[in-house]
Amino acid sequence: MEIKAIHEECDYTAALTLVDRLWNAPAGSPESDQLEVIAILIADYERQQHPVDDPDPIALLEHVMEARSLSRKDLEPCIGSRARVSEVLNRRRPLTLEMIRRLSEQLDLPGEILVRPYPTRSHAAWPAPA
Q: Residue ranges of the HTH cro/C1-type domain (predicted)?
């Protein structure tokens, strides 16, 4: 079986078909080695041709809450009072560095995503971020 680089969508489709055929290959077999190589090629092609942007911090929090069946109350140790959690999740107040640290440490969330800028609703009573 010839393994070649994936340059176009037709190559990509053929590689996915090959993965389907090899999926149940016994570990350590030549077929499982081929599967591993093809998976690496597919991942590289997808990274180049179909990049997926990281979610914004609030979208990440919402996803984690849903996936882990967390309530807003569960975020209070990381973010603050019930009102503060509401302000953050409703994009009325941005996450602070301390909130980001606690979310990262206590919920094992990636800090590099939590620090990304994201849209918030402006509110005249709050000072502009420095």
A: 60-114
Q: How far from chain centre, in Å, is Cα 69?
A: 17
Residue 102 to residue 17: CA distance in whole angstroms: 44
Please give the Cα distance from 43 to 64 (Å, whole number): 24
Q: What is the pLDDT of residues 35-47, one digit of tens each?
A: 999 999 999 999 9
Helix (H) or strand (E) holding 103: helix 97-107
Structure tokens at 49: 């041709």
The Cα 35–Cα 15 span in angstroms is 10
Contacts for 119 with CB less than 8 Å, ≥ 6 apart? 56, 91
Whole-number Å distance between alpha carbons of 61 and 55: 9
CB-based contact 3:41 (threshold 8 Å): yes
Q: Which residues contact 78 (CB under 8 A, 6 or more apart)?
A: 99, 102, 103, 106, 107
- Asked if 82 contacts 73 with a C-beta cutoff of 8 angstroms, the reply is yes
104 by Cβ neighbours in 10 Å (0-12 / 13-18 / 19+) ranks as middle
For 83, the token pair is 């009102």
